[in-house]
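can u do me a favor
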């Protein structure tokens, strides 16, 4: 959300606040640009170590979505220091550190404040070649749309807060949310994606909308091909939605044409806000087989969910 007009005219700022991209890109030399990103939020799972892992995987994800390599990270901590055990915070920090290390990056500092409600996240700095980073726009007609993780985490974390999530559903969700987008991103190095972003708070359709709209194309998405976390359908049918799913749907509904066969619950699922979601990739058709063969070895759930078409009346057609 933007509260101030952009004002930088520095030519080295390649991606800044003007762009609704995943992070900023600032050119340092002809070979190196900095990528920076920041995210923090209240706990979404009960296990503090896993929460730290999820927060780190989520913050690192923007660097991967831009084709960069994470290098350093700073912790952002708000914590009720008198009320909650220090051990809980230590576990959050350990989870984050382990994920940042898995990303071949280092936690180099941070800042904490005393706060009633715990919040945690990270600011991550990465590097990329200034000519080779991915934007969340640039999709071209004929491209294939690929999603690298299942959706539904907003619904599942809402169910967890209400005590409605089974242990099995919780375990599968936590597995995906703690999985780094590193491995899928590495497979992109051998191909030439036209646009890449990660699916987070705006939900699949919100991030797809930004990509399609910014690229001046339209998308078709096959609803039945979109992978869902276990339990998503059942919980959605019980009306277990976070407020963000409704808000995203309200924002997007006039730009999207849904086939008559798509139910209202299915529409809301596609708008469900994610944390640490997968990459949404617009890939030239000729690269798809190569990418899929490669990526299936590291992430079996990667799926083709639609395609890019010439700009039509609506921005997205969900079939
Ligand atoms: Co992002």
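np, heres the sequence
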């Amino acid at each position: 959300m933007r509260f101030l007009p952009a004002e930088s005219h520095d030519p080295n700022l390649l991606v800044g606040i003007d762009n609704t991209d995943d992070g900023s890109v600032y050119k340092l030399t002809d070979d190196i640009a900095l990528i920076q990103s920041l995210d923090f939020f209240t706990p979404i799972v009960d296990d503090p170590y896993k929460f730290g892992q999820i927060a780190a995987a989520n913050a690192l994800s923007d660097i991967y979505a831009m084709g960069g390599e994470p290098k350093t990270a700073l912790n952002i901590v708000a914590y009720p220091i008198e009320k909650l055990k220090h051990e809980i915070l230590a576990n959050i920090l350990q989870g984050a550190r382990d994920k940042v290390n898995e990303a071949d990056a280092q936690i180099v500092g941070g800042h904490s404040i005393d706060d009633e409600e715990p919040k945690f996240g990270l600011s991550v700095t990465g590097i990329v070649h200034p000519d080779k980073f991915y934007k969340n726009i640039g999709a071209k007609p004929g491209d294939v749309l690929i999603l690298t993780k299942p959706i539904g985490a907003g619904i599942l974390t809402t169910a967890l807060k209400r005590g409605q999530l089974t242990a099995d559903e919780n375990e599968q969700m936590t597995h995906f949310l703690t999985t780094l987008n590193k491995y899928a991103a590495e497979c992109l190095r051998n191909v030439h994606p036209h646009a890449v972003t990660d699916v987070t708070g705006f939900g699949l359709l919100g991030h797809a909308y930004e990509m399609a709209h910014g690229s001046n194309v339209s998308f078709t998405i096959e609803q039945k091909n979109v992978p869902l976390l276990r339990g998503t359908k059942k919980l959605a049918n019980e009306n277990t939605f976070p407020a963000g799913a409704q808000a995203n749907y309200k924002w997007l509904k006039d730009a999207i044409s849904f086939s008559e066969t798509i139910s209202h619950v299915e529409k809301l699922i596609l708008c469900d806000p994610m944390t640490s979601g997968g990459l949404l990739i617009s890939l030239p058709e000729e690269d798809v087989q190569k990418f899929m063969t490669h990526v299936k070895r590291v992430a079996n759930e990667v799926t083709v969910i639609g395609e890019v078409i010439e700009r039509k009346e609506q921005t997205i057609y969900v079939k």
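Residues 22, 62, 65, 197-198, 200 surround cobalt (II) ion (CB under 6 Å). hope that helps!!
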